[in-house]
Amino acid sequence: MTTSADYENTIESWRNDYISNRSPKKGWEILENLVKMQFEIAQQMDTDDGPATEIAEFDDFSTSKLIKLIIGDISSKDLLADHQILLLEFIPNAHPNILRHVVQTIRMKEGAISILNTSALAVGIALARRVTDSETGEEIARLMAHLVENPLICEELKSQLNANNGKESSVLRSRIYSIAAERARISSDSTCIQWLHDEILKSVVDTKDVLAQLDALDTFVDIALSGKENAETLLDSGVVKKVYEVMEFARESPDCGEMYLYGTRFLCYTARSCPRVLTTFPDFVHRLMNEIRMFDMLSVTSRLGAFDHFASMCYSVEAKTTMENMFKDSKDLDNTLGAAGAACAMGTMEMKCRTLQAVTLIFENATNELAEKWYERLGGNALTHVAVSTVKKPFPELKASIYDFWQQLFVYPTVAKSFVAFQGFIDWALDETSENSQEHEFRKRQTIHRVIELSEKNGDVVKVDPEVVGRLKKYLQPASAPAPRVEEMAL
Fold it and tell me: The CATH number of the domain where 470 resides is what?
């Protein structure tokens, strides 16, 4: 009977043996012994109730270190092709955490992907059969994203989906769905997994299981955020339209409010990567902007969600330009941004912080001209006054939000000049007692440094009196150290 102490001692002994004789032959000898031990432990867990608990709770850290050490020294061909029988014996019964480290090491080995697609395809299929494991599935999904171009791998994954088609299996299915999101991160070509997109869409459209519905929609969110081409694929293939139709149905059904919220999030995140969504679904844009203008009538959750979604929808330069064109003949965009600016100063501490964070996100992507126009619509001098007044107050969370806001705004000289021209800002910047914590003092110095930099590089826009610049530079200088005492000089 193998106990945890015996197991750990054996692993440590093998590790020392390998380090003293670091060769592929010795490595394979140890791996073979490890496979045998894993198989024996699995049998003990099936037949003995008492020791099984002890065995199941083994710390796998030392084991994973040993495996990564050995596998790292073995070539991809030797590991996956020449000794694939050993891997095929190891994979089905391997401890989940140990297998996770093995898969990660294999994925990062040079040439491993091409070998898994050809001569070691059986290993890839064996790994695909464990993609639904709770502790291993995430790492296996990353590997599967590289292998789904192989039809046999796809067949195995389809088989896994068919075997887990009940309502109680929605969590297992979501782990297979995650392969689509992982694939989107490494490639914009999703033709090989179009079947998987169709399966995910079926879960979104199926209103019988709301949790599975929301989980599937989260997968589409990850795909949309992975890049413009992937977001365009979702739009052109009809996925976005289907989600919009489900949203419209949910909007009329009080018991499906979560689906409307998640659907709004999906459309806004898709628009973040593909602004064409805005012109394709103009009613949706109007509705979200109306929520921003009526923010004081929304619940806390709805208000925070509305601003987060609006910021994502307006994230890119293309999206801002599209909205400028969509609302050039009305005041809707002006009024919406004005309401967003007013919301920065209204509500609880959390509401103010979250609203500022959303507005900050809007300025992450803009041109100098767009930034100036949108800042003026948000309130211009009034918002400048709110920001300067807020940073003087003893609220750490709000201070941090203001500093993040300024860090983003001061990328644009035409916006920064409105702060430099505001006397209260310069007075605060020169006040050596305005910040008590090291973190906030550091952020303040960053802001001052940026103002000095803008005055020197963009002096025609950001005009700062030379005397004030000199005082700001003096502020940044470290304080003089006191003269050493006589005893210290003697030492």
Answer: 1.25.10.10
pLDDT in tens, 334-358: 999 999 999 999 999 999 999 999 9
**Identity of the amino acid at 129:** R
Alpha-helical (H) ranges within 48-108 are: 49-56, 61-73, 76-77, 84-90, 96-108
Residues 154 and 184 in one domain: no
The reply to whether 181 and 103 lie within a common domain is no
Residue 39 vs residue 315, higher pLDDT: 315
Amino acid residing at 489: M
Phi, psi of 423 (to 5 degrees): -60, -35
User: What residues make up the domain containing 78?
Assistant: 1-163
Sign of CA dihedral 211, 198, 225, 278: negative
Structure tokens belonging to residue 372: 């100036």
Longest dimension (CA), the chain: 84
Whether the model pTM is above 0.70: yes
The continuous run of DSSP H or E covering 308 comes out as helix 300-313
The pLDDT value given to residue 83: 86
Instruction: Check residue 346 and report its DSSP letter.
Output: S
Q: Is the pLDDT of residue 436 over 90?
A: no
